[in-house]
Automatic annotation (TrEMBL):
It catalyses: (2R)-2-phosphoglycerate = (2R)-3-phosphoglycerate. It comes from the Bacteria. Its cofactor is Mn(2+). It comes from Streptomyces showdoensis. Its EC number is 5.4.2.12. This is 2,3-bisphosphoglycerate-independent phosphoglycerate mutase. It is an enzyme of class 5 (isomerase). InterPro entries: Alkaline_phosphatase_core_sf (IPR017850), BPG-indep_PGM_N (IPR011258), Metalloenzyme (IPR006124), PGAM_B_sf (IPR036646), Pgm_bpd_ind (IPR005995).
Length: 505
């Protein structure tokens, strides 16, 4: 173990590794500084997807699990896995929370409303979970089921919503119960920027049947001007011209996303609007909503990681990120623990928010960099943790050239951080949390269309040693679970007892 040297943990969001290709915006970018670090510093590729981090085999990584595992120092069974286990084992069919509500609906004649993202992107939801819930509703003879379908185009390739809606219509037919009542893009339904006007439009569709009236679900897709993400709220009407969907007194609403961060704003808004009307709310997995919504599956404990260890040793850390990734370097890195920790300082960088990130791939990176440099200059802060969001956030647009420019801005920011680190005697550990920008096209077999989603590729983990610091090249396979033990070792601390990862340097 090293004697203990202060450092900077820099998460480059969406920084995956793949060889050069026409799909790789990272190798296409001019990133001389990062190229130099990768060539000269002890580096390793770390697994950031699938079972290595606590996801189902072959599942793409995401920011939540990525930061949780970076912080926990061990794989954390993610919500998608817990839901899948509940379904595969057959336990969901007798899930006490679900059964109680379904029995009540069948006895009293209420409707079950299933609200969720309809794709198999495996980041927020899996449309197969909706299928199982429809089957279970049929087994319990729930008199009516309404599906309020949120179209994706972000975790999966754009212009795929027609196929997923087709799947959902097939599931409904197979179950013999249910109708698609609402179709709306995730840009509206899964806003997490706090833009309540977007959320309100979705709520009004569900509560009052307000929105574009359509006869068939697929008609909704013709009404978007910005792809699947921005399908405007559409309400399917019945033969009598009335919307099929509005939630009525005594109904139940079950949110089918397993990930909370983007659906919780809508869940809270609906909860408030329907208060006092005897509507039961449920969520597939546990949400961070203000409202207490009972989950069908409880989340895993991701505690006992880096944050706990730093607190136990009184090691001060400063956490820095743009608003988009702020929770990731605080809440998720701390094992989904929102407790205020006296030895932690949080810097949430705000600034101009571009409605379209392709026009501003630099985002507010200058301010993030300034905050990191300023924290690095403090003697009372042994550890600075920051997230550079650009590669991931711009990568999600599916726009190759903008993502290439995001990488070039990131390169200059990393250079500035490394200079500050050298001047203040710090090491810098750079790591991706999952892949994204190294794959901006779908597979050729699928027709090579633009792709803004995450990947299963490993991520680089690179240590830029502090001046005079001797470190050996890391050996063997690595995963994100090795990052917290590495950070602790570099700070001169032992891994926490619950960590299964090992120090890489
Ligand atoms: O919510 C999103 O923006 C994407 O679906 C997933 O991206 P993230 O895991 O990087 O947040
Ligand atoms: Mn991420
Ligand atoms: Mn992302």
């Amino acid at each position: 173990m090293n004697a203990g040297t202060p450092g900077i943990l820099l998460v480059l969001d969406g920084w995956g590794h793949a060889g050069p290709s026409e799909a790789n915006a990272l190798t296409a970018a001019a990133t001389p500084y990062l190229d130099g670090l990768l060539a000269d510093c002890p580096a390793v590729l770390a697994e950031a997807s699938g079972t290595a981090v606590g996801l189902l085999p072959g599942t793409v990584g995401n920011s939540e699990i990525g930061h949780m595992v970076i912080g926990a120092g061990r794989p954390v069974p993610y919500d998608s896995v817990l839901v899948q286990e509940e379904i595969s084992s057959g336990r969901m069919r007798s899930n006490a929370t679900l059964v109680e509500v379904l029995n009540r609906l069948s006895a009293a004649g209420g409707t079950l409303h299933l609200v969720g993202l309809c794709s198999d992107g495996m980041i927020h939801a899996d449309v197969q979970h909706l299928r199982e819930l429809l089957r279970i509703a049929a087994r319990f003879s729930v008199p009516a089921v309404r599906v309020h379908a949120i179209t994706d185009g972000r975790d999966v390739a754009d212009h795929t919503a027609a196929a997923y809606l087709g799947l959902v219509e097939g599931f409904v037919a197979e179950a013999g119960v249910g109708q698609v009542a609402t179709v709306v893009g995730r840009g509206y339904a899964l806003d997490k920027s706090g833009d309540l006007e977007l959320t309100e439009k979705v709520s009004l569709a569900l509560v009052d049947g307000k929105g574009e009236a359509i006869g068939e679900p697929q008609e909704a897709l013709e009404l978007t001007r910005r792809g699947d993400e921005w399908v405007p709220p559409c309400v399917v009407t019945g033969a009598d011209g009335r919307p099929l969907g509005p939630v009525r007194d005594g109904d139940a609403v079950l949110f089918t996303n397993f990930r909370s961060d983007r659906i919780q704003q809508l869940a809270d808004d609906l909860y408030r609007r329907l208060a006092g009307r005897g509507v039961t709310f449920l969520s597939l997995a546990q949400y961070d909503t203000e409202a207490a919504i009972p989950p069908l599956v409880h989340r895993s404990d991701a505690g006992g990681g880096l944050a706990a260890e730093l607190a136990a040793h009184g090691v001060r850390s400063v956490r820095i990120a743009e608003a988009e990734k702020f929770e990731h370097v605080t809440y998720y890195l701390n094992g989904r623990d929102a407790a205020v920790v006296p030895v932690e300082e949080h810097v949430r960088v705000t600034g101009d928010v571009a409605p379209d990130y392709t026009a501003r791939p630099e985002m507010n990176l200058d301010r993030v960099t300034e905050a990191v440099v300023s924290a690095a200059g403090r003697d009372d802060v042994p550890l600075v943790v920051a997230n550079l969001a650009n590669i991931d956030v711009v990568g999600h647009t599916g726009h190759f050239d903008a993502t290439r420019r995001a990488a070039e801005h990131t390169d200059r920011a990393v250079e500035a951080v490394c200079h500050a680190a050298r001047a203040t005697g710090r090491w810098v550990l750079l790591v991706g949390d999952h892949g994204n920008a190294e794959k901006m096209l779908t597979d050729a077999s699928a027709g090579a269309r633009p792709y803004g989603g995450h990947t299963t590729n490993p991520v680089p983990a690179v240590l830029v040693p502090a001046p005079g610091q001797q470190v050996a090249a890391p050996a063997g396979p690595a995963t994100l679970a090795d990052i917290a033990p590495s950070v602790l070792a570099l700070l001169g601390l032992a891994p926490a007892p619950r960590m299964t990862g090992r120090p890489l340097w």
